[in-house]
């Protein structure tokens, strides 16, 4: 029966998590609209949110824990059995080989980070040391550079920037900035503002740009280095800013003076005149914001690209003022790295950044007889067998493990390889939130209450982590009962007792999330036990940024301020403004060197020095095309939607190919084509486009997912691009994969009937 109530929640399809309201018909999402009262999105949504019922309801949902049989099939088991056997399986690996052989992957996608906040407690109970997530596929190079240059993450203020620069970023489709399409149109319609887009494809964003730098695939570093060099050569550099706020820059400036600008322009496929015009526009603007994204981060020179992108705004002094780059207050630090860290993965020895092992080496860390190899995996809200390079090899790695458990809403490609699968409640059946809170000056955190009862047979992740920790004997039930009694009667007394208890032993500190869940959790209203971890997070934020939190309207001193923030988060269903920063605050967040930034980052300068010798192309006669494996389109949403019925168009995920290449190969839109690489091949349908350079082809991400029909027969629609990629294609520094730069071959395999 349709209700007339609109339930406030959020879209979970990208990091923006726009507020939406949903009207239910039973368990069906009958209507969806943007939530005008949401503190951040204020009613804005894109068309993808309207399809959310395909995530919530479908044939993909799991309703019982599953145990793998010897023949590879699965049998249902009850939760007590599953928790007991999973805890025993993990404990056996810990006891025989050491907890550091238990690898953790995931912890959340675009909208579900609350469960992952409890995972550190389970890992502590097991002694697990190594982990990774999708961020290690994309952002670790940027995180490292952020730490090295500024000591912190920075974000652009595109709603107010005079010049907005998008480097390998198409916000029209991948969003990432507030009200992306509205903001892009406002920039395009304002003659005083400019947009610069560096991208090998003429994207929807590039169509709105004043300066479109259609770079040759894989040569972004040459284009960016040339632009920075032009700024130095033409004295577009803000020397006062460098003198006052950048500790060291002489070596970087020296190297930029030596950049052969004309030659780099030639290699990048962009005219020198256009590069100079774009550099001048940046260098003479009152404010500039820069957003670099996967187009350059999943491509050759990934980490160097991140460094060079920073030069565009550091050299021109675009920091700590409206319209420029600033440092947001975060509730949970995402993107924090230690540039000086020497931690490496135990088998391959690859650099660990922000605590994450590079995703491309995980299989290599398993498929070896090295004594330090991972023997077990816990995979939560993630699908690495589909999303990491070389799916075949990752599946092989999972089969080699002594033990594995997957926590997910669906029987994903990864779950199909696991020893046990634990079915999670959906993001609309439990308390949820995202920690992607990067806005400035006002930052919003949205805690979402469930709008549906849990699907029978499922549990939310905090409960799963708690039960596993309890089964492992890692929780002192008596002490937790005492704390719970205190939480029910006197929150401040509880706070003092809890902090004293968890600081008495580092192990208890690491167990804090599940200890909060078990003590404070049951005392929270509306069954909100899963939000207990936010209590600790709110208190930490209040200690770290008290002024910004008070400016947002939360009052109190010491523990009272943390309590006030937590209560606000808990009671507000449409987002809480948790911090309001002043532009000046960005300065105090800089911690690279004595409160100053630095451009003389030795590791990046070495890469810049080596750039002249780097190839301009990685293709060859056998594989003459550059495949971007994972383009964001209107009907892509990572792997959140498994039901292919959510796509109104591009159901199979067409291969986009340029008009010139299509003519040479005799391919027309609608023809079937085979794409092959040295690793594998797929077949799909072709779409001939004028948006690509010759030699560049693209496939969308998120296709090729298993989905059962009404009779339970499983099939996949479209091609999974990671059947084509391989782990060695990765950044030399951060190990991020070159998913946007895969040498490939295309052949026509069948023509649709052409009109006579
Ligand atoms: S996909 Fe992103 S931009 Fe679109 S409605 Fe969802 S959260 Fe908002």
Defining traits:
756 residues, seven-stranded mixed sheet, alpha/beta, 27 helices, six-stranded mixed sheet, binds iron/sulfur cluster
Describe it.
The chain is 32% helix and 17% strand. With 756 residues, the protein is of the alpha/beta class. The strands form 8 sheets. The chain has a 7-stranded mixed sheet, covered by helices on one side. A hairpin with a 5-residue loop joins strand 26 and strand 27. Bound molecules: iron/sulfur cluster.
For the sheet with most strands, the description reads: 7 strands, mixed
Based on CA inertia axes, which overall geometry fits? Answer: globular
Describe the oligomeric state of these chains in a short phrase. Answer: single chain
What structural class do helix, strand and pairing data support? alpha/beta
Rg, alpha carbons: 25 Å
Q: How many E strands?
A: 28
Give the terminus-to-terminus CA distance. 52 Å
Fraction of residues in β-strands: 15-25%
Q: Which bin fits the share of residues in helices?
A: 25-40%
Mean of pLDDT: 95
Low-pLDDT stretches: none
- Helical segment tally? 27
Strand ordering within the main sheet = 5-4-17-16-15-6-7
SSE map:
Blueprint: E1 7-10, E2 19-25, E3 28-34, H1 53-56, E4 66-68, E5 74-76, H2 79-97, E6 102-106, H3 119-126, E7 131-132, H4 135-138, H5 140-149, E8 155-156, E9 163-167, H6 171-174, H7 180-189, E10 194-198, E11 211-213, H8 220-233, H9 239-245, E12 246-248, H10 250-257, H11 261-268, H12 272-283, E13 288-292, H13 294-297, H14 302-314, E14 325-326, E15 376-380, H15 384-387, H16 391-400, E16 403-408, E17 420-423, E18 442-445, H17 461-471, H18 477-489, H19 491-502, H20 506-510, H21 512-519, H22 532-544, H23 546-551, H24 559-571, E19 576-580, H25 585-589, E20 597-598, H26 602-610, E21 625-631, E22 655-658, H27 659-665, E23 672-676, E24 681-689, E25 696-700, E26 705-708, E27 714-717, E28 742-750
Parallel strand pairs: 6-7, 6-15, 9-10, 9-13, 10-11, 12-20, 15-16, 16-17, 21-25, 22-24
Antiparallel strand pairs: 1-2, 2-3, 4-5, 4-17, 8-14, 18-19, 21-28, 23-24, 23-28, 26-27
Iron/sulfur cluster binds next to loops.
């Amino acid at each position: 029966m349709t209700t007339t109530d609109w339930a406030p929640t959020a879209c979970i399809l990208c990091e923006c998590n726009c507020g939406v309201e949903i009207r239910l018909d039973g368990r069906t999402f009958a209507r969806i609209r943007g939530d005008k009262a949401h503190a951040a999105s204020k009613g804005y949504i894109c068309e993808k949110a309207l399809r959310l019922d395909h995530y919530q309801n479908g044939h993909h949902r799991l309703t019982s824990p599953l145990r793998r049989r010897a023949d590879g099939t699965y049998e249902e088991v009850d939760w007590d059995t599953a928790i007991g056997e999973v805890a025993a399986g993990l404990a056996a690996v810990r006891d025989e080989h050491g907890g550091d052989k238990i690898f953790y992957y995931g912890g959340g996608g675009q909208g579900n980070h609350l469960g992952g906040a409890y995972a550190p407690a389970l890992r502590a109970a097991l002694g697990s040391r190594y982990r990774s997530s999708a961020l290690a596929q994309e952002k670790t190079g940027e995180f490292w550079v952020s730490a090295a240059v500024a000591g912190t993450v920075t974000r652009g203020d595109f709603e107010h920037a005079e010049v907005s620069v998008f480097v390998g970023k198409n916000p029209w489709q991948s969003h990432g900035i507030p009200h992306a399409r509205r903001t892009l149109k406002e920039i395009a319609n304002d003659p005083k503002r400019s947009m610069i887009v560096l991208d090998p494809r003429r994207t929807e964003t590039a169509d709105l740009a004043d300066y479109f730098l259609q770079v040759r695939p894989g040569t972004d570093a040459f284009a960016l280095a040339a632009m920075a060099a032009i700024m130095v050569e033409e004295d577009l550099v803000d020397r006062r800013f460098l003198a006052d706020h950048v500790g060291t820059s002489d070596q970087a400036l020296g190297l930029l003076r030596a950049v052969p600008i004309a030659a780099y322009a030639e290699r990048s496929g962009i005219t020198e005149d256009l590069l100079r015009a774009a550099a001048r526009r940046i260098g003479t603007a009152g404010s500039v914001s820069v957003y670099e994204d996967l187009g350059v981060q999943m491509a050759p020179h990934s980490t160097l690209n991140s460094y060079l992108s920073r030069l565009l705004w550091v050299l021109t002094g675009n920091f700590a003022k409206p319209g420029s780059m600033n440092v947001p207050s975060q509730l949970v630090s995402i993107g924090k790295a230690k540039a000086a860290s020497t931690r490496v993965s135990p088998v391959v020895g690859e650099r660990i950044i922000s605590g994450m092992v590079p995703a491309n080496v995980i299989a290599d860390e398993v498929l070896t007889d090295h004594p330090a190899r991972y023997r077990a995996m816990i995979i939560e809200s993630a699908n690495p067998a589909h999303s990491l390079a070389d799916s075949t090899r990752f599946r092989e790695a999972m089969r080699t493990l002594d033990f594995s458990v997957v926590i997910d809403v669906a029987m994903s490609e990864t779950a199909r390889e696991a020893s046990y699968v634990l079915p999670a409640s959906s993001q609309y059946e439990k308390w949820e939130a995202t920690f992607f809170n990067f806005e400035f000056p006002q930052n919003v955190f949205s805690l979402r209450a469930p709008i549906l009862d849990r699907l029978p047979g499922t549990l939310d992740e905090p409960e799963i982590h708690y039960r596993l920790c309890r089964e492992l004997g890692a929780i002192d039930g008596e002490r937790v009962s005492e704390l719970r009694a205190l939480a029910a009667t006197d929150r401040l007394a509880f706070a003092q007792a809890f902090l004293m208890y968890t600081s008495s032993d580092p192990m208890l500190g690491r167990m804090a999330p599940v200890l909060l869940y078990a003590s404070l959790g049951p005392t929270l209203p509306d069954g909100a036990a899963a939000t207990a971890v936010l209590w600790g997070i709110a208190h930490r934020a209040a200690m770290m940024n008290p002024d910004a939190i008070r400016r947002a309207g939360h009052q109190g001193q010491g523990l009272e301020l943390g309590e006030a923030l937590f209560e606000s988060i808990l009671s507000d269903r449409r987002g809480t403004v948790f911090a309001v920063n002043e532009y000046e605050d960005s300065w105090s967040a800089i911690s690279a060197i004595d409160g100053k930034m630095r451009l003389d980052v030795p590791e990046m300068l070495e890469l810049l020095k080596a750039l002249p010798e780097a190839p301009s192309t990685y293709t060859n006669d056998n594989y003459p095309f550059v495949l971007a494996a994972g383009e964001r389109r209107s009907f892509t949403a990572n792997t959140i939607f498994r039901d292919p019925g959510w796509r109104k168009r591009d159901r199979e995920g067409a291969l986009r190919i340029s008009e010139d290449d299509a003519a040479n190969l005799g391919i027309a839109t609608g023809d079937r084509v085979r794409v092959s690489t040295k690793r594998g091949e797929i077949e799909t349908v072709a779409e001939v486009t004028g948006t690509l350079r010759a030699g560049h082809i693209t496939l969308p991400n998120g296709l090729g997912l298993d989905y059962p029909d009404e009779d339970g027969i499983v099939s996949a629609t479209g091609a999974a691009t990671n059947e084509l990629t391989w782990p060695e294609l990765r950044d030399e520094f951060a190990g991020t994969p070159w998913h946007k730069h895969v040498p490939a071959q295309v052949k026509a395999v069948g023509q649709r009937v052409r009109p006579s």
